[in-house]
Write a structure and sequence with these properties.
Blueprint: H1 3-18, H2 22-26, H3 33-40, E1 47-51, H4 57-65, E2 70-75, H5 78-91, E3 97-101, H6 107-111, E4 118-124, H7 133-142, E5 144-155, H8 163-175, H9 184-194, E6 197-204, E7 209-216
Parallel strand pairs: 1-2, 1-4, 2-3, 4-5
Antiparallel strand pairs: 5-7, 6-7
Length: 217
């Protein structure tokens, strides 16, 4: 069994039931998502891609925030996409949000959406769940327009939080196969250098969360 199939099966097993109350619980600790959406600022008539779109929460929020922009979402979990599709339908945004099942680390999955190049590509608390997260970042960059931006929000290293809190949080995240990426800023810096892009980063809540923007010149 290859890694893509294994990851898909794992995500389906984790979220088979959780997807029904995922958005209700995650709003308390997936901090910084609305900050990312506020900073998307896509041009009118442009296309935006979320890699690892989950239940579609971010896509719906962004589509309501930016009328006249098309949004595309990819996720490896069929179960999450079922929930996302239903939420998009209820929000009346089926004409502006497209969803597809695929592996974010595989550029060919993104091509099937047919929206590239994208003016914005974003990752919201997904790189910490992707086994091949560096390749997912590379996939996002390869589908980015010449003057586009990649936006990332994810768990930081929490080194400025109390030790007991950090230990409890990391232990709890590990139960759901979530691993905050200590090398994330280094990887983004390397991508920025190789592709003549600029990188800005920001930490939230004593480095509970990390926010980053990689902009092509």
């Amino acid at each position: 069994m290859n890694e893509t199939v294994q990851t898909a099966e794992l995500m389906n097993s984790i979220y088979r039931n959780q997807r029904h109350f995922y958005d209700l619980t995650r709003k308390f600790y997936l901090l910084g998502r609305d900050h990312l959406i506020e900073n998307l600022r896509p041009p009118q008539g442009s296309a935006v891609l979320e890699l690892g779109c989950g239940t579609g929460r971010n896509l719906i929020q962004a589509a309501n925030r930016y009328p006249g922009v098309r949004f595309h979402g990819l996720d490896i979990s069929e179960r999450m996409l079922e929930t996302a599709a239903e939420k998009v339908r209820k929000a009346g945004l089926g004409d502006r949000i497209s969803l597809i099942k695929g592996d974010a680390s595989d550029p060919s999955s993104v091509r099937e959406l047919g929206g590239a190049p994208y003016d914005r590509v974003f990752f919201s608390y997904t790189l910490s769940m992707m086994p091949i997260w560096r390749e997912a970042l590379a996939t996002g960059l390869s589908n980015l327009s010449d003057d586009g931006t990649i936006l990332v929000v994810d768990f930081g290293q929490q080194e400025r939080l109390p030790g007991w809190f950090r230990s409890l949080l990391l232990g709890w995240l590990a139960r759901y196969h979530v691993s905050p990426r200590a090398e994330l800023v280094d990887e983004l810096s390397a991508l920025a250098e190789r592709h003549d892009a600029s990188l800005s980063t920001q930490s939230f809540y004593r480095n509970y969360a990390l926010y980053a923007e990689l902009r092509r010149s």
